[in-house]
Design a protein that fits this description.
The structure is a single chain. The protein is an alpha/beta fold and 310 residues long. It has 9 helices and 13 strands. The N and C termini lie far apart (38 Å).
Length: 310
């Protein structure tokens, strides 16, 4: 990006796991970056971000050094233990946080990139999940605070578009991102398995381990997001790895890299999806993007990161 084209971006949640990586990639690409984050759960990699830092909540933003050309809206609890601890706050972040972002974007004439989630598909009855699939979410289930918060935020994006209030947003649905920068105790399955194995403890497997996920390494996810900037494609568009892995297969992969420490089987939580796999033709046709990091390589890099923290 040349000096005369240098543009300004606000990243909400920029001190989190995904945010840290996106902030650094944006800065490398020549963007002038400002981060808005309440620092309730900063990534271990959040130190020395190449950005102006504004501490505050996206639900009630403090004064910001706008205008910005782009808002990357990442702010949200993302791991089940965090959003289950504060279901009301999670819903408020999804709803009111999105409204605040859209109102600011309308004021500044900014494009919005919103990172939604594969959780909007709920416990899907279709596999893989295309963007056209409307999902199967139980609004009474414990995970609904996160799933429905994101679904509402997506609906608000399109409501603003139909009402003529703001029409420059891209909705991206991310599938099971992992890699360096995750909290060791964030409760997601990759860190749970790796943390247990590194501590010499049995891997905690919920249910019989047949449920599947599609794990996408963080560098691949960031590359996909960057390819969508500063485009005007409204989405939604899936970003993820289309290689489907059962929890037993993930345990096998961890044991091949660290060694066997045993396994303990636990009751399956209510609402835990049985399958998760993205249909990726939309982003491939739009940008040519495809995840390139295989599971063993991504896990090896994540293991090295976790070992450096101890």
């Amino acid at each position: 990006m040349t000096a005369e084209l240098k543009r300004r971006v606000l990243v909400t949640g920029g001190a989190g796991f995904l945010g840290c990586h996106l902030v650094r990639r944006l800065a490398t690409a020549g963007w002038v970056v400002t981060v808005l984050d309440d620092y309730s759960s900063p990534s271990p990699l959040a130190d020395d971000l190449p950005a102006t830092i504004v501490v505050g909540s996206v639900v009630a933003p403090p004064p910001l050094p706008g205008p910005f050309d782009l808002i990357c809206h990442l702010a949200s609890p993302a791991s089940p233990p965090r959003y289950l601890l504060d279901p009301v706050g999670t819903l408020r972040t999804g709803a009111e946080g999105m409204r605040q972002v859209l109102d600011l974007a309308a004021e500044w004439g900014a494009h919005v990139l919103f990172t939604s989630t594969s959780e909007v598909y709920g416990d899907p009855e279709v596999n893989p999940q295309p963007e056209s699939y409307v999902g199967a979410v139980d609004v009474q289930g414990p995970r609904a605070c996160y799933d429905e918060g994101k679904r509402y935020a997506e609906a608000l994006v399109y409501a603003y578009r139909r009402a003529g209030l703001h029409d420059r947003s891209t909705v991206v649905r991310l599938f099971n991102t992992y890699g360096p920068g995750m909290h060791p105790d964030d409760g997601r399955v990759v860190t749970a398995f790796l943390g247990a194995a590194l501590a010499g403890q049995p891997l905690p497997i919920f249910g019989d381990g047949s449920q599947t996920r599609s794990f996408c390494y963080v560098d691949d996810v960031i590359d996909g997001l960057m390819r969508l900037l500063p485009g005007e494609f409204p989405g939604p568009v899936n970003i993820g790895n289309d290689v489907e892995v059962s929890m037993l297969e993930l345990a096998d992969a961890v044991e091949q890299l660290i060694g066997s420490t045993g396994r303990r089987f636990l009751a399956l939580p209510d609402g835990d999806p049985k399958v998760r796999r993205p249909e990726l033709s939309a982003i491939t046709e739009l940008t040519g993007w495809k995840a390139t990091t295989d599971l063993a390589t991504g896990l090896s890099k994540t293991i090295a990161y976790l070992r450096e923290l101890t």
